[in-house]
Amino acid sequence: MSIISRTLLVSLAMTLSTTALASSAVDTLLSEYRQAGAKHFSASQGKRLWNQAGRPPGASTDRSCASCHTSDVQQPGRHAVTGKPIKPLAPSVLSRRLTNIAKVRKWLRRNCRWTRGRECKAQEKGDLLTYLRDQ
Amino acid sequence: MPLKFRKWNYVLLSLVWIPGLTLSATPVGKQAGAALYQDECASCHTAYPAELLPTRSWQKILAGLDQHFGDNISLGNTSLTTLARYLQAHSAERAGTHRARRILQSIPQDQTPLRISTLPYIQRRHHELPARLVTGNPQVKSLSNCIACHRGAERGVFNEDTVRIPGYGRWDD
């Protein structure tokens, strides 16, 4: 095979891989979490975390992920404090969800702080993403 | 494969690969501030038009994001600088609208308000509204939830004839 056709093939494969929706972004993050010491990821554990309510320091009510996104992520949510509508988080409803690594990282950091009062551990983030990616 | 061909391989790859990466990156230039404001701030609440507060208020808000109305939503320095530039460029002093001038006039010089809903001008404009339509209305909850009734709020449209109060309808005083 000539160099040029080989190059084009590799380029095509790389381009296709970026359009492979949520899976490639989530896969990348999961492998990062594994390198950070996380073990096997579980969707059911992710679902449990999603609905687990707690009271972060300074908050006046208990908070969970479901407080804003509801416990069915295929449904639209609403910010628990401000009431601002939130579009569904499920990739099956909104295909752009979980496709942008920087966004996923940012919102996990911000929303874990908001919900738990601390950043989530690699294991928790992996479980949550494993649960969410199939919704 | 000989090394010199491999080098060309990378060059060719970058021609296909780098444009793809650039397109998906954060927009730069004039739109960056607006896009960042939308993403960082308006994901959680109304994208309050910058003209609703003076520059000193926006500066104080950005300086206190670790305690933003009770929540820590700290941002990186790059985002902060971009947001500060955007909010200052469109603040009440710079917007040049009638509304912005009235807002500025209503705020005592020695005060730096953080809540738009408590500005004398905003309070005055809403004083005829009974509480049951705002705080007592589960779909509104607070005067700070502008978009609940002013659907064009994020585009700076607050005219009375565009108001639709959830569970009530038009508002004519």
Principal-axes geometry of chain B comes out as globular
Please give the radius of gyration of chain B in angstroms. Answer: 22 Å
Q: Which oligomeric state applies?
A: heterodimer
Structural class of chain B: mainly alpha
Strand order across the largest sheet of chain A: 1-2
Q: Bin the helical content of chain A.
A: 40-55%
Distance between the termini of chain B: 80 Å
Order of helices and strands of chain A: HHHHEEHH
Weakly predicted, low-confidence segments of chain A? 15-19
Distance between the termini of chain A: 42 Å
Q: Which structural class do the helices and strands of chain A define?
A: mainly alpha
Mean pLDDT of chain B: 85
Number of separate strands of chain B: 2
Strand content of chain B: under 5%
Q: How many separate helices of chain A?
A: 6
Number of strands of chain A: 2
Would you list the SSEs of chain B in sequence order as H and E? HHHHHHHEE
| Backbone shape of chain A | globular
Explain how this protein is built.
The complex is a heterodimer of chains A (about 140) and B (about 170). Chain A has helices at about 5-20, 20-35, 45-50, 65-70, 100-115, 120-135, and strands at about 75-80, 85. By secondary structure, chain A is an all-alpha fold. Chain A is globular. The N and C termini of chain A lie far apart (about 40 Å). Chain B is an all-alpha fold and about 170 residues long. Chain B has helices at about 5-25, 30-40, 55-65, 75-90, 90-95, 100-105, 120-125; strands at about 165, 170. A two-stranded antiparallel sheet of chain B has the order 1-2. In chain B, strand 1 and strand 2 (about 170) form a beta hairpin. The longest helix of chain B is centred in the first third of the chain and has 22 residues, at about 5-25. The interface of A and B includes residues 4, 11, 82, 86 and 113 of A.
